[in-house]
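Researcher: Next sequence.
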Amino acid sequence: MFVARLAEDTRALLYGGDAVPGKLHGPAKIIDASLDVRSGGHVTFPHHAFFDLSQPLTVECTVWFDKQGKMPVFVSCGHWNQA
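Model: Next structure:
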């Protein structure tokens, strides 16, 4: 289990209680207990064995759109936009 609430900081918790530090990139920031990427940017986490995509995976996100626009990518695994 990997839980990244992104409400106070970018730290995520793994099953068992270990913390995994996330890193903000670009203009992404945490504001009002949410990850704000309206101006761009993203969060990355270092690779971990829990991210093994050869097994079933469930992702749950709560998102808020305040205007229409291009559909953003919410979750990605691996190098983005690379073969």
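Model: DSSP finds no helices and seven strands in the chain. The mean pLDDT is 84.
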